[in-house]
Amino acid sequence: MARSACLAIGIFAAVLVTSAMAGVGDPQIMTDHSVYRGELACSTLDRNIADAYRVYKDRYGHEPKTDLEKVVALWIWKSEHYMHACDNKVYYGPDNPDAVQREGGPPWLGRDGWMDSKDCQMTQFSFSFGLCYSIHAQMAALIGHALGDMARVRCPEIHGHTPLEVKIDGRWVLVDFTMGIMVFDDDGRPVSLEEILARKKAGDKEWFASPKRGGPYKLNMSPFGDRLDGYSPVRWIQMNFGYNAMPIVYSLRPGETFTRYLDPGLADGETWMFWGRDYFPLNGKPKHGPFRNVTFMDDYPVGEMRRGRGRTYYGNGVFEYAPPLADDRWREGAANEKGAAWRDGALRGQGEDAHVTFEHLSPYVIAARPVEGGDRDWKVMEEKCVDGAVVTGQAVGVVPVKVSVDGGQTWQPVGKAEGGFRLDFTDAVKGRHFYLLRFDLAPKSGLKDLKVRTVTQVGRGVFPRLTESGCKITYEASGQHAIHGGPSQDLAERFRRKDLEKDGYRVYGIRGKGPIRHAAGVVRVDGPADARWSVEFSVDGGKTWRTGVKDVRTGGPGKQWEDGKAGYIWAQMDFASNKSDEVLIRFGKGNILHAQVFAACETKNTSPLTVTYGWIEGDKAKEHTHQIAAGKAADTWTVPTGKGVHTKWVRFEVK
User: Fold this and answer.
1) CA-to-CA separations, 162 to 71, 132, 569, 596, in angstroms, rounded
2) What is the pTM of this model?
3) pLDDT tens digit string along 414-439?
């Protein structure tokens, strides 16, 4: 989407990241559901892997021991938490060559700076859907991390499809999520794409038709209607195709709630808000938005010759933030302010250039709906949209309102707050994870009250679902606040430290209001086939560096993607005992086309949190509320569910 006219560029971004976000940092819960436990079970790569191994143990009686069992466990988990659907688009910016359409380019290329996401955890939480090249890029990151070697995962490009292969016991093995299959030989060993192609060339129809292809797990061939013998010769091999970067972390401030809905439709069940392709013309027209009826999501378990016929959609989330303007607690939630104070019944400016800025940031992508609805195919990416981001309130005088999606480097006018106002700025922020909303104040103009409402899409696979006959809830709040330097390049560039760059390295510095607890970085690179890349972190101003990855090669034997010159190099690191509020992230060495950097800093949990579940039991609506004291980092309780439970929503509320 095109940007509207922008205001002057300033140094605002450098100030923003020094602000503290108080309230409750990084609240997460999980239930005791056998499959869909929620964010606390899968919000990091390590948690995701542990949950996959738990599911495997529940079904097969032991933890995965071999590399094959580990890969099968991850394949099962992802197959049951993800659906094959279009347009998990994220704005990367035109500096990323994968986000620019070019004639004769690969099918996974985007356009106008937008492309299908390859960020593993962010895509799981924002979407829980994607096409083959997207999900297999993400799974390459997850499985590579689990096995401790990204060189053991690759994405072959064939006609109309991009599967995934993993090297197990020295052999490449097909691991295909979007076709829903792994293929086994007569001895129960998984096979490679090359062997499938050889069988196809030999016309071995009996081999393809044999139930032995499902192996010891009794996988149905082919559960989604795709034909095994439809695989075609490999055109090239893509290495370093995906990554993990954005932390699944957000903060709730005093006066803020976050309500998640398992099913699309929000509170009334009919307000369709999404970010992706509208499958309305294809799904029988009951609902607008992403949809799939051939998936193991909502139709688990994989195996035992089951075909996977879940009829599944997406979820939604609603952030509503009403800063307590009449007391100083609004400062706990402000990203930046100058000369603002409560006086004569309003938050006013005390002099020239007074303003207050609030931030929205979450791992859930901002959703939208077209102004012109109707029974048709909604194209939320191209059409004028509303209701994804709205600010309402009461103003004294005239208060100009602006929004920034690049960390305060440029600003777009939203409108003017006068009297009882409602300003919709959905088109400026849809498809994003982060924005800043600024109110310009003066002695005679200000805000009497204010509410900012942001609607997101929530991946259905990560919703914490209730169970019957009493459901145990586990809660943790790490007290962390995330800082986004991506996925767009302009968000990263505000942290660039050119003064520290030399010898082909690129350096970024992120400062938080509290010790840095986590950092991640990824670069899209271009270089010779034998290039060796690194990602390093420093929390002592660059005196010493800790290696995330080192000497990563983008090339290798055989026909490589772009002749081995291009790929995503990434690393992440935790800093449990660090006391510094700044982290440096250094990439090297060579031609970097695109960069993203992220961090999470420690803040204090200063507010109590209320967790409320809503569900249907039989034909009755039920609710249950639990209070968590301020500063409490962990808790457990039981929601008193009965029989015939269908989870509707869960709400976090900070007073």
Assistant:
1) 18, 6, 20, 24
2) 0.95
3) 999 999 999 999 999 999 999 999 99
